[in-house]
Amino acid sequence: MTVSGPLDEATSRALDDLVRRHRAAEGVGMQVITMLGGRAETLLRRLPAEVRLNLEGATRRALEIAADAAARSRSRVPDTSDWLNTALTTAMGAVGGMGGLPTAMAELPVTTTVLLRAIQGIASEHGFDPADPAVRMDCLQVFAASGPLERDDGADVAFLAARVSLTGASISGLITRLAPRLGAVLGQKLAAQAVPVLGAAAGAAINWSFTSYYQEMAHVYFGLKRLAIESDYDHATLVEEFRMRLGEASDGLQAQRP
User: Fold this and answer.
1) 16, 101, 186, 205: which could join 194 in a potential S-S bond, CB 3.0 to 4.6 Å?
2) Domain residues of the chain, as ranges?
């Protein structure tokens, strides 16, 4: 459903701000791709076959650990700023990259926990309670966005419109659905951290990219949900309008390129 007439000024400005955030999120990965020599498309092939086969299971375990640890930590550790979360995961990526693939695998669930906790903090910033099971599901849903190393030019915004239903096994069911997609994304991260020569620098850059990306996507996701509550437009309408404006922004950038 599209908006039949012009949006009110405040809603239009808010949507434009969210489009800019989405575009900024896409940009962070491009810097890492440049550092890696434009090899994002072939990164997964660099992983040993055994690791590729076990990526989905490793991702599912990392998400399960993160979902539990992030929720439990909220009563003991306060939310921190986006830049501090990014600094923390960047440091962890450097440590994970020092030892190549083995240390990168060990670092994976820790970074995933910090990322999820950062997403929960952003949900709270937008007025949603991360203790609410539905909001916990929404926080996990942010991981359904394509990763920062994907060249999707804004085409993949389906995660914004996804409606997650609450069932008895809601969290575990969502993790099972997310694991294959996120596994492919995190596989790129692991492969980049294992690139010879780059080592710790690659790990730091990759984690900076991932944290910046998913935090921006969380702001877009929860920003749209908050806008639907505060404006006269329903969520589906705002998502469709957002999709249209994002496409226009992508077309404008393409037209400016030589």
Assistant:
1) 101
2) 20-256
